[in-house]
Amino acid sequence: MKNLKLFINFIFILLIVSCGETKKEIVIQPAIKKEIKPVEKVQKSWDSLKKHNVEAFFTEYGKTNKETKVLIKTDFGDIKLRLYNDTPIHRANFIFLTKINYFNTTVFYRVAPNFVIQGGNSDEFHTMKQRHKYGNYLIKPEFRANRKHKYGALAAARRWENNPNKLSSPFEFYMVHNRKGAHHLNNEHTVFGEVISGFSTLDKISKVKTDVKEWPLKDVKMTVEIIE
Asked: Is this structure's pTM higher than 0.85?
């Protein structure tokens, strides 16, 4: 009996030792928290119009804004314009400004009978605010051999001083009022459209009284809207 008890104790001790040798420690590693960086919005070059992305902006804008006909309304009557597709940046720019209602606070500020009638600017706060918002950007010329300064031509105004690349003002435009045209301006200003109706309105505007700088004594206001 004594031997049996000793044998059982021996087996029990042996099992304890064996378990102690084979037991493995399980270590739970803490989860590694990965740093999730916020996804930066990549702004495409045409998302927001600024001085540095004019061509890219209007190239993309023109793809989804394909209108080519606009209507200028004045107290003297209406003028319907057709914009050219082969001057795509100038066309898209004019459509853009029309859709944001830029022209609706501007006036025809230069009336030179038998030469040009020019508009697209004013002293209104909204006008100045819009110009400042987009940085008074400029547009590269889009001269075309078949786009001349004929009677009724629509062209972009520009500065002549310190402007060797003949960059257009995006905001200011003129229409040729001379029935023989103004061909000395060919390849100097970009012609990007033409008057298709409303020549009588041009004649009426040409008769307003102006100061010595050809600025009308009474504002010739306009609104511009898309036709198609």
From this structure: no
